[in-house]
Amino acid sequence: MSTLSDLGELPTLLSNSLLSQTPLWQREVRTLSPLDLDAFVALHKGTSQYCKALREVDHVVNAGMAALVDGPLDSADFVFFDPPKQAFTSADLCEWLEDVTLIRRRALLFALDMKMTPREVIDLSWPELKKLRLTMLAKELVKVQPRHIRLPYVFWDTLPNGAAAPLFGLGESALEASQGLGFETMQRLYDRMVMIDSQADLDSFTDDFNTEFNNRLQSCKIRDSEARSHSGRALDCKSSYGGSIPSRASTATHRIAPEVGSVVASGDHP
Predict the structure, then answer these.
(1) Which of 55, 80, 105 is the last residue of a domain?
(2) What is the value of pTM for the model shown?
(3) Secondary element (H or E) of residue 147
(4) Is the dihedral of CA 259, 269, 155, 195 positive or negative?
(5) What is the DSSP letter of 250?
């Protein structure tokens, strides 16, 4: 008798899982049906464990398929489990992206709207950008992106030591933001989302992000004023955060601290 607890790699993958805490874990595999897995997923719907439950069921289906191919199983109805279609809204996307840095948020949005991979966005240079047919949102994102005088990359970040570098680990940022689902799943959900391609939707979407940024900007202005009075030198507050979330009114010149390097005005990209 084969159970989920000893099927393929499941003992290793799901030893301390949600599924291992249910009676399904010790059920004979041949008696499992897609309805059993549906019921398990439904138990966690609307909770923070929902995505984890879906990932665990995905492991079960994969293990079942492998067992059918390799021979341990001659039948396994549960492999026909059909994942529930998730309703995905712009509010869900905002919630996913709120924990990543501003520049990585922009880069992921650019990748999703342009249907590019994180690797392609990391490597994207300004000359290559000219060859692309940008979406409306992509244009807004690029418009406020400061250009580094030495780095060719459109999207770049500042390391803890002050050096400028490409957005290494953007794929990992997507994995973390999506609660472990990964960028490919993010893309599928984004494609089914009500698209933010109208002026009203874009304004609403960017306003959500700007609320937090404006609070930070105000704080930066206060520190900037204090710096002026003490040293006579002032850093452009916007550059400290890499600019604002895309806005059609955003035409300000961006500068960064000397130790990071120079950038040209965001509206002056060749």
Answers:
(1) 80
(2) 0.48
(3) strand 147-148
(4) positive
(5) -
The answer to whether 152 and 258 have CB atoms below 8 angstroms apart is no
Place of tokens 């979407």: 205
Query: Does residue 190 sit in helix, strand or coil?
Result: helix
Q: Which residues contact 82 (CB under 8 A, 6 or more apart)?
A: 34
Tokens at 225, concatenated: 């004023």
Q: Which amino acid is at 201?
A: D
Residue 4: other Cβ atoms inside 10 A: 25
> What are the pLDDT digits (tens) for 241-257?
344 444 433 333 333 33
Nearest CA to 72 out of 15, 7, 131 is that of 7
> With left for phi above 0 and alpha for psi between -120 and 50, is residue 163 left, alpha or beta?
beta
Q: Which domain holds residue 183?
A: 90-268
Task: Name the residue among 66, 50, 63, 61 with its Cα closest to residue 18.
Answer: 50
